[in-house]
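User: Working on a comparison across species. This one is SAM-dependent methyltransferase from Streptosporangium becharense. Can you predict its structure so I can line it up against the others?
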Amino acid sequence: MDRQLISHIAHRDHPIAAPIDDAQLERLLRRARLRPEARILDLGCGGAEWTMRALELYPEATADGVDVSEAALTSAAGEAARRGLTDRMRLHHLAAADFTAGEPYDLVLCVGATHAFGGLTETLHAVRRHLHPAGQALVGEGFWEKPPPPQTLARLGAEPEEYADLAGTVNRAEDAGYATVYAYTSTRADWDEYEWSWTGSLTRWALDHPGPDGDAALAAARDHRDMWLNGYRDILGFVTLLLRLGSR
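Assistant: Here's the predicted structure for SAM-dependent methyltransferase from Streptosporangium becharense:
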């Protein structure tokens, strides 16, 4: 199965697509304190749940969502129609790094998608190109809760310097020219809810679709679960930073 389709199915029961719950997502968006007619950009939007929540909180705002997954964007379009948001949300099927716009944005999101740019620092440089000077960025990134052992790095296909610890992650953001105005650090409970939903949603779909695709989905769910439970659980953390342009 296509990996993008697997990811889309796996996020059905946790559409936020990050180890964050509804209350914290809303708190992060409210802390942005956007102007009424704000322009919002979500780079790597997936099913665009963050985008739609922002539009619901700021009913005069408009948004662009960008993603490479056709399945996720098709789902996002249907959900936007159901929630009456179609007229205020534009979806773009292309790589986040290739997106261009004629006007800057008040809020740029990139949550759990910094890999699209090659890492946190590169993502923040890319975000700056889209951001109004007084705008804000909401960026979700992994960090090491504790030094990862070699076997965990091997399972993740990661290098030790791919992530920093929490303090180092904040420093990386501020070294890129941003000031941190708020953040949320995901808890173990947040992670467990996210991972059990990810693997469970994919497993349920696999059992309902016997055949080659179902077999592939079930194998992906079991491999992911093993990598989490026997690999990065309590080692890989996640923080969502609310940032403004500024010096340290």
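For your comparison, note: The chain has one domain: 19-191+237-245.

User: Helpful, thanks.
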